[in-house]
Amino acid sequence: MSQKSLYIRVICLVIIVLISIALFMTYQTYGNWQFASSIRGKKLLAFIIVGLLTSLSTISFQTITQNHFLTPSILGFDSLYVLVQTILFFYFGQSPSHPLLMFGVNVGLMVIFSVTLFGFLLKKETQDLFLLLMIGMVLGTFFKSVSTFFQVLMDPNEYDKLQGKLFASFSNVDVSLLYIVIPIVIGIVLLFWLVAPILDVFHLGTCQAINLGVNVQTFRWFILVLISLSVAVSTALIGPITFLGFIVANMTYQWLPVYKHYWLFTLAALLSILMLVLGQFLVEHVFHMNTTLSVVIEFSGGVYFIWKLLSERGKTRQ
């Protein structure tokens, strides 16, 4: 694909995203612009943060695993988030009164869990990455089982409150957390941008990356920790969204068949923000809040995942 064609596609998508944001921010404000912007602006900022973290972490994860069907949630982060929320509700009756404490506990536990897991498994053997993925799946199932055990013992009223915390919600984002999250997100995005050329090399394969001078084991450890921090911040801020990264990453590969991660990151982030903004617009003004954005994304992602599996299977048979 020519450089001109890349620029045209990205510019067109930027224009579409800006139009969507303008529509989301101004539709049916009825002259109450300040009131609407204070509410919708908070959601828009959350869309941008989650879109950036989800798209960059998913594409990086799929590059180092060399598999377009895997997402960081396979390491059990979503299940760990549910377990943390369940235990806090079980022992304390409700979430801590200070939202910053809850945010710090969630991010801290997820990052500690991932660093511990990577430290034990990412050694010099070539199978360690695949072992890591398998153990992540097993731990995810284990976390779900423990969460279910505590939920069965929980008071019905507390269980009802807990369910509201276990689904992604952009409407209840705490503004005070955004001022803390924004500097973290800027740092994460800059780090992803700096390692983009090394991720380009991984498209050639692990052996080629080693031959070109990349310290594969050290880089894998670094990028997995960076991915873990991205997923932890995103999940602790709004809750788990499993299929968002899968959708935007695979749409990016289809629409932009290039290997350079500068382009892949840019397009995936724009697609992710566009999907979240349009999805919330549909939820509010078409479905009239009868459903949630997370439900729409999970349903669409599940259908897209099945379609992707069937289409790849058909290509393999041919």
From TrEMBL:
The chain crosses the membrane at residues 6-24, 44-64, 70-93, 100-123, 129-154, 175-199, 219-249, 261-283. Keywords: Cell membrane, Membrane, Transmembrane, Transmembrane helix, Transport. InterPro entries: ABC_BtuC-like, ABC_transptr_permease_BtuC. Coiled coil: none annotated. It is a multi-pass membrane protein. GO terms for cellular component: plasma membrane. One of its GO terms (biological process) is siderophore-iron import into cell. Its main location: membrane. One of its GO terms (molecular function) is transmembrane transporter activity. It is found in: Cell membrane. The keyword Transmembrane applies. The keyword Flavoprotein does not apply. Belongs to the binding-protein-dependent transport system permease family. FecCD subfamily. This is Iron ABC transporter permease.
